[in-house]
Amino acid sequence: MDNKDKSIIEKLLSIAGVEACAISSLDGDVLQFSSNNEDLNELSIKKVSAEISKLFSSYSISSIEVSSLFLSFESHNIIVNGFGSGFIFIASKKNSNVNLVKMESSYLESEFIKIVSNSLENLSSKPSLFNNNNIQTAQNPQNAGVNNINDIYPPLGDNQFESNTAQHAAISHSSGSATDGSHQNNSSSTNGEIANVVPINVIIAIKDLFANSLGPISSMIFDSKIKELNQTMDNFNRKKIEEFVKLLSKEIEDENDRVLFFKNVNNILKTIK
Q: Which residue stretches belong to region Disordered (predicted)?
């Protein structure tokens, strides 16, 4: 590990709220690691790294170019940045105050992208949530094939991804083999309902893009626009998504940011059409 890599680690650990960070190869091997929290030891970080690697490999991707993938656990947040042949990630402890969590998350993500982008030559200098060619790498890890999540990361609490568990259960159910006609009918009905709903990972991705454009206050505005359309994040009607994006874009004053937001959102929506 050269001095440049060590410098990145030192800079990331200097961000307020960061408790551990690591650089890993694409197959999950931890190349460089440092921690400010004795509970986040090398063993637990290796487990985290291995599962992030599984998430990427579930899409059969050999080169990762995601500038920010945000994973949320009960006690910690993990922010991942892929850079071709490997990835960097940081772990930060969650605050108990919900509004403070939202502000801290936006701040951490902004600082994280800034440091990594300036430190690695093959990352874009202007942060955007996803590289257009690898948009699916930011999808919900449970839907990406990460199994037995409760058995992972002992130091991180109960380690539940914040996702639509009902939707995940329905998908898992419909993927099993049918034993009778009733089972098949239920599966068809479930699949039809899911087809009319925007996947929650897509809504989360749009929310993160909106946060990149608007900053810490974005979360409250985002939630208010969802309520305005009488929708919820885990049950969002596809017919409402275009109107929703227009409502969000009106809140972005900077024209360049607004255009970039539209472009990135359109790229995300292409994956579900």
A: 167-191
What pLDDT does 14 receive?
Answer: 83
| Degrees to nearest 5, angle at CA 16 with 14 and 20 | 65
> CA 258, CA 249: separation in Å to the nearest integer?
6
Query: Cα–chain-centroid distance for residue 114?
Result: 17
Mean pLDDT by 10 residues, the chain (273 residues): 62 83 87 86 87 74 59 74 78 63 62 67 35 34 34 34 32 39 49 73 88 76 90 92 92 84 85 72
Query: What is the spatial distance between Cα 170 and Cα 191, in angstroms, rounded to a whole number?
Result: 8
- Beta strand 76-82 with 86-93 is antiparallel
Please give the CATH topology (third level) of the domain spanning 3-156.
Beta-Lactamase (3.30.450)
C-alpha closest to that of 64 among 27, 92, 36, 103: 27
What residue ranges do the domains of the chain occupy? 3-156, 165-195, 197-270
Cα distances (Å, whole numbers) of residue 36 to 41, 77, 96: 9, 15, 20
Q: Which residues pair with 30 in a beta bridge?
A: 24
Predicted confidence at residue 138, as pLDDT, reads: 36
CA 76 – CA 93 distance, rounded (Å): 4
Beta strands in 62-181, from DSSP E residues, in sequence order: 69-72, 76-82, 86-93
For residue 102, the model assigns a pLDDT of 55
Helices in the chain by DSSP H: which ranges?
Answer: 3-13, 42-57, 98-119, 165-175, 181-195, 200-214, 218-228, 241-249, 255-270
| pLDDT at residue 213, as a whole number | 79
